[in-house]
Write a structure and sequence with these properties.
The chain has 328 residues and is of the alpha/beta class. It contains eleven helices and twelve strands. One of its GO terms (molecular function) is GTP binding.
Length: 328
């Protein structure tokens, strides 16, 4: 098993398959995009499958595929199908912006993808265009409809941004009245590639107060083990509401996650430096025992929380990076 120095079992991998994205959300990257990785810099699907197999053998039970946007990478579905067949993998999930996803939903169901996180910051078409710089809201809503049709668990992720979409909080909450979805509001993080100055005034406390102003009867639900969100439900509503303290980082103490970036950097915390490059190790023909030893040593040094990880950053401030390059 992978155990960190705080005695936490690490059983969840977030694997970013690409840094590229077909949206240009202002809170993630500049309008012109970022300096995309070359094909040689990326891990190949074979390398991703190999390291995933090693990690599953070391106790990883859940893999979430992220990006960038996973569906912009060529031949993504055959890779996902191969990944779903790993012996010992108990849960395969993914995060997507939903622009290209709808046609693949039947196949996602067939291979056993159990849950999809759908990025959706607003239900207003103009605000969607303003935030993402692309007029793709109908495509995203089509993906939501398809996921519900095929009975795949849906978590809608909405980043709350002052002056941009705070008026969308209540309309998004209303989705949970008739739909069995979890709408999760996320504190804005400053991982935007230096594109703007993030406003952090809308923290998890203020987000909840805004919801309570309309729904005073909202009830706190028990939070599952390792949950990153504080979870709630309005009486009589089918779905639930979650609030993720992504910048406040109040959930870090129970962290069971590691991340792999598209270029193979292992990150034990979103807010910290890379601690190991597994792509380089594999391309150097490192033995299985050598790879496992390197992974155990890296994970054993995982910091207690995001604040400690940020304090220990060496080199350029990690907060200047784009979320697309570190795995959303």
């Amino acid at each position: 098993m992978l155990i960190d120095r705080h005695g936490r079992k690490i059983n969840y991998l977030r694997l970013a398959v690409t840094d590229r994205c077909n949206l240009r959300c202002f809170y993630c990257m500049p309008e012109e995009g970022i300096d995309w990785l070359s094909r040689q810099e990326l891990m190949s699907y074979e390398e991703m499958l190999q390291i995933s197999s090693v990690l599953v053998g070391m106790g990883v039970e859940k893999i979430r595929i992220t990006g960038g946007e996973p569906f912009v990478r060529k031949d993504f579905m055959p890779f996902l199908t191969d990944l779903s067949k790993l012996n010992g993998l108990q849960q395969l999930t993914l995060t997507t912006n939903g622009v290209l996803t709808a046609p693949f939903v039947p196949e996602l169901k067939k291979i056993g993808v159990s849950s999809v996180n759908l990025s959706l910051d607003t239900l207003d078409r103009q605000r969607f265009l303003d935030i993402t710089r692309r007029d793709e809201l109908p495509s995203v809503l089509g993906t939501l409809e398809a996921l519900l049709k095929y009975d795949i668990e849906v978590k809608i992720n909405a980043v709350v941004m002052e002056g941009r979409n705070t008026e969308d909080i209540l309309p998004l909450v209303e989705l949970t009245r008739d739909l069995p979805v979890s709408v999760r509001f996320i504190e804005e993080m400053p991982f935007n590639g230096g594109s703007h100055q993030a406003s952090l005034s809308w923290d998890h406390v203020q987000i909840l107060e805004a919801i309570k102003y309309k729904h005073a009867a909202i009830q706190k639900l028990p939070d599952p083990l390792y949950s990153t969100s504080y979870n709630y439900q309005i009486p009589g509503y089918k779905g639930t509401v979650g609030i993720i303290a992504a910048y406040t980082r109040s959930f870090c103490g129970t962290c069971n996650r590691i991340r792999l970036t598209p270029q193979g950097d292992l990150k034990t915390c979103l807010y910290g430096n890379s601690v190991l490059n597994v792509k380089d190790l594999m391309r150097a023909d490192t033995t299985l025992n050598g790879l496992e030893t390197a992974l155990r040593e890296a994970v054993s040094k995982k910091e207690a929380n995001g604040w400690e990880a940020e304090k220990n950053v060496v080199g350029l401030p990690i907060l200047n990076a784009s979320m697309a390059t570190i795995g959303g």
